[in-house]
Amino acid sequence: MTETRTRATTPEDLARLFVERANAGDAEGLAELYEPDAVLAYPPGATTVGREAIRAVCERMLAHAPGPFRVEEALPTVRHGDLALTSTRPADDTGGRVQVARRQPDGTWLRIIDRPEIRSETHSEDRPEAGAE
């Protein structure tokens, strides 16, 4: 049985689709938002390369992440031809999320580079402990 998932028709769709699939516990669907040789800077301090490795990381993330995920505030997308730089302001105060997406031959978009957490050492030291808010 072949499952058909909604595809991103704009680079901005990728963040919404990520949240929908994460909330559905769909690690395979999350990995399908990436090109086959995409690079994911996750878990923090590591680099994950390739859709299959990204699927495995997503499985582990979904097994441990508190839910539900929420669509975060999008910052303006920057485009150059078939490339787009997208970013959001994280609700979890990780400093920022940034992705590079590429338009596919069929007009849909997939991520090629994803850095879901940007946290400086100074910033992380200044953060309150969990539950201190």
UniProtKB/TrEMBL annotation:
Residues 81-133 are annotated as: Disordered. Residues 16-100 form the SnoaL-like domain. Pfam families: SnoaL_2. InterPro entries: NTF2-like_dom_sf, SnoaL-like. It comes from the Bacteria. Coiled coil: none annotated. This is DUF4440 domain-containing protein. It comes from Streptomyces antioxidans.
